[in-house]
Amino acid sequence: MIGSFKNVFFSYDGVNPILENVSVELKEKQFFAIVGPNGGGKTTFLKLLMGLLEPQKGSIELLGYKPQDVRQKIGYVPQVLRFDKHFPISVEELVLQGLLSKLSWLGRFKTEDIALAHQALESVGLIDYKEAPFGSLSGGQAQRALIARALIGGPDLLLLDEPTASIDNRAEQEIFTLLKRFAQNKTVLMVTHDLNAIAPQVDHVLFINRTLTILNPADVCGHFAMGVYHPPLRSN
Ligand SMILES: Nc1ncnc2c1ncn2[C@@H]1O[C@H](COP(=O)(O)OP(=O)(O)OP(=O)(O)O)[C@@H](O)[C@H]1O
Ligand SMILES: [Mg+2]
Predict the structure, then answer these.
(1) pLDDT per residue over 63-82, tens digit each?
(2) What's the angle, vertex CA 134, arms to CA 131 and CA 140, rounded to 5?
(3) How far is it, in rounded angstroms, from Cα 84 to Cα 134?
C-alpha cells in the first residue's frame, strides 16, 4: 500500500466541512481516476495527500510516513497553468524546476540532472522541443512538459489535477497512454471531468463530493460525462 486516509475530516474555516469521514487505501501499481462536481473537494483531497493541508480529524499516511515528510516522492501536476506563457523559460528549464530542491549551492544543475531532464522529456515525447520556449508549446504539449517536470525526480506517486482539461481527444489519449505506462510500476491519481473517455482504462474511480465513494469503473454510468452525478445504478 502506498498511502491511506483514515476517517479524515477537513474544513478550511472550521465551520463548513469540505471532506467528511474520508477513508481510502491507495494500492501500488494502480490508476485511480478522481471525479466529482465542482467544489466537491477533489483538489483539497490531493493537497491533503501531499501534506500541503492537514486534516482536523483522522490520519493520512504516505509510504509509511506523514505526507509532508515524503513530499519529494510525489510528482504533482497542478490544476491551472500558473505559468505566464510569455515567461522566458525553455522546456528543458521548466522540467529542471522539478529538481529545484536538489539544486546545488552554486545554483547550477549537474550534467546528470540535465540527463534526467532529457529522459523525462523523452518519456513524454517532447525531446525535440527541449530548447523551445515553454510559451510556444500547444496546450497538450505544455501539459506533457508539466508531466515531465513531475516525473523528473522519479516519484512513487503521480498526482494530476485535470491534466487534460484544455486539450483535444488525441492529446488526451496520448497522455492516458503515458500515465498507464507509469502506473504499471507506480501509482497514479488523476482528477478528470471526462470520465467516459478513461473509465475503461483505470483501475478504480474515486467519487468525491464531501464524502468519498470508491466505484468500480465498470459500474460508472455515462451520465457522469454530462455532469449528472448519482450512485451507480443496478439493473436488478
Ligand atoms: N484555500 C481555500 N480557502 C477556503 N475555501 C477553499 C479553499 N480552497 C477551496 N475552498 C473551497 O473548498 C471547496 C472544495 O474545493 P476544491 O478546490 O477541493 O474542489 P474541487 O472538487 O477541486 O472543484 P473543481 O472541480 O472546481 O476543481 C469549495 O467549496 C471551495 O470553494
Ligand atoms: Mg479542483
Answers:
(1) 999 999 998 899 998 876 65
(2) 115
(3) 9
| Pocket flag, ligand 1, residue 40 (CB < 6 Å) | yes
Q: What digits encode the pLDDT tens for the residues 200-209?
A: 889 999 999 9
- What residue spans define the domains of the chain? 3-226
Q: Probe ligand 1: pick from 42, 54, 79, 162, max atoms within 8 Å of CB? A: 42
- Contact 141 CB / ligand 1 (< 6 Å): no
* 235, burial (CB in 10 Å: exposed 0-12, middle 13-18, buried 19+): exposed
The chain-wide mean pLDDT, for the chain, equals 87
Q: Taking the domain 3-226, which CATH number applies?
A: 3.40.50.300
Residue minimizing CA distance to atom 7 of ligand 1: 12
